[in-house]
């Protein structure tokens, strides 16, 4: 991972008295390699490195930062700048219903993203109408109807084999008639960019006059996605990009390159198959994430959605008073599994990816089951106060849960670390002055 690589580079820089030309050069060489490995377009990487060099060399060494921290800060700021400033999430002003058009290759995630956006808008009190404009594939139409039913959003019912352009304008008329304020057009995709499709999309655009034309692009396809984006942008003049499937490693690379090539804001990230797996895109957060600093705010926002308010309040109280117990730890593990991919969540907690023991116990579902078994084998008193658990108790617990004593030892060590991390997380969330667990 890019973040691991950069982490290593900056560790090397730490402990040097000041930024010298030589160590900046060395760090930048590593950064460049790391960027290329993360699938960042080579031209983007070059521009980026040049900018960092210029800034790093021209700058006084700040007394408050170590040289390593200072380079991290510069790289972070530049990454955030490259990824673009904050953009409006969606252009929803003007005459209602506002049409949003989703375009992209087949399989990029358009239909899923249309439903995710509908849910997102519904949560904000809007009344979206979903319209499948894919007239070729009945299965795609059915898919959207199914997703719409799941989230309780209306889906326009089209006639079979209807002309897509006529269909789009009829959907618009239906949106007007039924008082919807947003119309989400899920357009047809192809496996490759082709001229008839582009012509069809241009005709829909001319007819409906969408406020946004959003390219839905699969981040896993890396540089291919960038070439595709260029094609769609030339034909349709996109207003923004939604990157999907960014849970994987390619997220940093694809986003950076996409942003540079299309030069339109990335508005959302798709981070999973579930319909709430949509994140507002924050350039500075992605920059932090690429650098391995973790993304505390996103994590906390996620936590906020998944926890019910009382539970969150209770957790915050416990963390404050440092009465977070093994029992809570077990509940947390269960919650975390509800929230989504563990790997993804752990990656967002600062420092967690660097702690060895934590990494070992991280993504393996079987390990989670084992941890639960171990905690279940403890007495309530032990769960409430892990300090009680001495050598003989450890042996008893290991026997009871069918594991080795080392497993119990490791769990207790990890628990102690988690206790610390959770505390830090809360503090970091507070420092940011943003939302915490409490709404
Ligand atoms: P379309 O052909 O562009 O409409 O693509 P679909 O919406 O049908 O999605 C294709 C596949 O990608 C489906 O299996 C989706 O569940 C999956 N998918 C969509 N978005 C995401 C995402 O953000 N993460 C993951 N992991 N899968 C996604
Ligand atoms: Mg589709």
UniProtKB/TrEMBL annotation:
Annotated positions binding GTP: 104-111, 186-190
Q: Where in the cell is it found?
A: Cytoplasm
One Pfam family cited in the UniProt record for this chain: SRP_SPB
Gene3D superfamilies, alphabetized:
P-loop containing nucleotide triphosphate hydrolases (3.40.50.300), Signal recognition particle SRP54, nucleotide-binding domain (1.20.120.140), Signal recognition particle, SRP54 subunit, M-domain (1.10.260.30)
Membrane-spanning residues: none
Q: Entry's PROSITE patterns?
A: SRP54 (PS00300)
Any GO molecular function: GTP binding
Alphabetized InterPro entries for the sequence: AAA+_ATPase (IPR003593), P-loop_NTPase (IPR027417), Signal_recog_part_SRP54_M_sf (IPR036891), Signal_recog_particl_SRP54_hlx (IPR013822), Signal_recog_particle_SRP54_M (IPR004125), SRP (IPR004780), SRP54 (IPR022941), SRP54_GTPase_dom (IPR000897)
**Any one Gene Ontology biological process term?**
SRP-dependent cotranslational protein targeting to membrane
Superkingdom of this protein's organism: Bacteria
- Its catalytic activity? GTP + H2O = GDP + phosphate + H(+)
Provide the E.C. number(s) assigned to this enzyme: 3.6.5.4
Keywords for the protein's UniProt record, in alphabetical order = Cytoplasm, GTP-binding, Hydrolase, Nucleotide-binding, Ribonucleoprotein, RNA-binding, Signal recognition particle
Q: Indicate the segments forming the SRP54-type proteins GTP-binding domain, all copies.
A: 265-278
Please state what the annotation says regarding this protein's domains: Composed of three domains: the N-terminal N domain, which is responsible for interactions with the ribosome, the central G domain, which binds GTP, and the C-terminal M domain, which binds the RNA and the signal sequence of the RNC.
Listed NCBIfam families? ffh (TIGR00959)
The name this protein goes by in its record: Signal recognition particle protein
